[in-house]
Amino acid sequence: MPAFRAPRGTRDLLPDDRATFDRLQATGTGLASRYGYRPIETPIFEQAAVFERGIGSVTDVVEKELFRIAPRSEEAESWALRPEPTAGIVRAYIQHGMQTWPQPVKLTTTGPMFRYDRPQAGRYRQFWQFDVEAIGDPGPAVDAEIVELGFRFYAEVGVAGVEVLLNSIGDPACRPAYIEELVAYYRARADVLPPTERDRLERNALRLLDSKDPAMTELNAGAPRITDRLCAACAEHFAAVQAHLSLLGVPFRIEPGLVRGLDYYTRTAFEYYVAGREGQQQALGGGGRYDGLVELLGGRPTPGIGFGLGLDRVALVLAEQGSAAVAVDGPLAVVVGADPEDTATRLKVATDLRAARLRVRADLGRRKLGRQLEAAGKDGAHFAVILGDELAQGQVQVRDLLAGTQRVVGIDDLARALARAEANHHHG
Ligand code: AMP
Q: What whole-number distance in Å separates Cα of residue 378 and Cα of residue 362?
């Protein structure tokens, strides 16, 4: 056992994993940019109140999972690592007066999120999300744009069989009456409610609907459905979102039990799953409309909608589905030398080639030429630049490791010759 290990619930992304994440992030950022979402970066920690107020204090994310930073005695501020990006982005929207920008303000970010939860497969204390937010548009068209964007993300990164679950959770006009009805329904069945759910009932009854406790399955199946109790405005919005999605050809399934974990959601709520895998730690991503959030955090009433897609789970599913890992290109060339001691010349030649923007490794080991060439082959290099006796005449040997051919090239012409060979290789 090593003396130190990565903290519980965190993982090292080794180069192959990091390459996969790079690809996911690049796909997300590229897609968002195609749809007109511009990148933003907010701090990974905020005043804890941003999350407490924004996400709601009676939510698992804040009550149990908020990764708090112990305040240093001289500082009054209480901080927490972000459990999700929306609250911080909305805080930035208000702070920087984005209300005066052309609306909606469409933003995207990708980065690590933190939840102090019990770690298990697919659930980490540090995980990555690709996130988009459209602030200042009441929908319904932008709701469909965002749901479709997420759906396309999975298609472009190569996850097979993704389905969209969709719901409307109403708004302050219709939700309170619905929640009353829901509370009455569960109270009448209090004798069969598991204790944790009984406790939640009085504080956040909506959450019982997406309880993963098997004892709740039957109870929840008979519960009143929000989709039957939407006010006229919410019902119309919900119908329009569905119509837009159908027109875009995005398949979706209405799931009245989908309420999402955070308090700030209104109306549209959605999640992405691989069909047939809809367990608790299996949501690939989710999002929703948050028309009350800007006001909650001190801004003018402003509608908004967004999603967060979990990249760790996408990477897991891609690996399970046997999707090819990112092919790592070897260097264009490795500089090797006949004189085991002369690492300085190898490094100098490689440095000049790198300055000419070529991908070049220098073999800096004091080992025999044969070994250096062997390693260059294993590296997947296309060429070996061999420094030998010809160096006195300003020349080197260039061996094409793929073709098995070798020729003499003047050192002054080396960068140009390699660049030309690379271009031919890629276009040939
Ligand atoms: P949420 O806002 O909780 O719905 O999270 C959005 C997405 O982030 C989820 O669908 C997951 O893919 C991912 N996610 C959330 N929490 C975790 C976690 N603890 N570990 C890994 N991924 C997570």
A: 14
Is the minimum distance from the CB of 82 to ligand 1 under 6 angstroms? no
Let me know the angle formed at the C-alpha of 101 by 79 and 27, rounded to the nearest 5 degrees. Answer: 70
- The pLDDT tens digits of the residues spanning 113-153 come to 999 988 988 899 999 999 999 999 999 999 999 999 999 99
**Which tens digits make up the pLDDT trace of 99-109?**
999 999 999 99
Sort 393 into a burial class: Cβ within 10 Å, 0-12 / 13-18 / 19+: exposed
What are phi and psi for residue 99, nearest 5 degrees? Answer: -60, -25
The encoded tokens of residue 73 equal 């005695």
SS3 138: coil
**Phi, psi angles (nearest 5°) of residue 411:** -60, -30
Distance (Å) from CA 427 to ligand 1 centroid:
42
* Residue 180 CB burial class (10 angstroms; 0-12, 13-18, ≥19): exposed
Residues in the chain: 428
| Secondary-structure percent of the chain, ordered helix, strand, coil, rounded to 5 | 40, 20, 35
Q: Which residue is associated with the tokens 């290109």?
A: 329
17 pocket-lining for ligand 1 (C-beta < 6 Å): no
Helices (H), 85-136: 86-95
